[in-house]
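ASSEMBLY PREDICTION REQUEST
Request ID: AP-0331
Submitted by: J.K., bench scientist
Number of chains: two
Total residues: 200
Priority: normal
Notes: Please return the full assembly, not individual chains.
Input sequences:
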Amino acid sequence: MIVMNKRVLTLYAGMAVFIALVFIVEALVPGIPATAYIVATVCAGAAFFVVGRRVFNDSTEVLSDERDERNDARATAFAFRLLTPACMLAGMAIGATAVDGSTWQAVGRTLVAVGMAFLLIRGGASLYLDRKGR
Amino acid sequence: MIRNTVYELRSLARMTQEELAKAVGVTRQTIISLEKNKYVPSLELGFKIAELFGKRVDEVFSHGPS
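STATUS: Completed
Returned structure:
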């Protein structure tokens, strides 16, 4: 986990405020098109990314080190191992029970496709790293 | 299991965990985990720590049964 100094905490607080604002605006002002939210989120995301990079690069203290990177990789691997089969199983279960042509069938197929895409990307990345001699 | 003598060496050098962490470029949490033998550092970090205390890597880290 990265060191939570004042600037990092402020950054996270800013992100939380933005997310809360989106929900509040959506509740109070109906009728705003979805594209407006998408554009706002992409712009905010880009802004937070730029600010975040500055916070990390300008910090005099070490915020994240090899142990954090290693734990992050392990956590990501755990999430992948849990979600990929869950995604495919859920997709197959939905596909088996959904009515032909229904939205649920599309959802089921999408879940299976996403699960398979995860596996293919993981396999490709593993091959690449192996060939690179890592 | 990899064990180390980082705590003893740091105490002898009268360094705080924060000072050691800054000197080798890691967070204080990593030094804490290291001293508790809960974290096995990379070779690079192992060398940095050993060199900081003027020791060989095998004088700071040892391998034994878990």
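REVIEWER COMMENTS: Residues 50 and 57 of chain B are 5 Å apart (CA to CA).
SIGN-OFF: pending second reviewer
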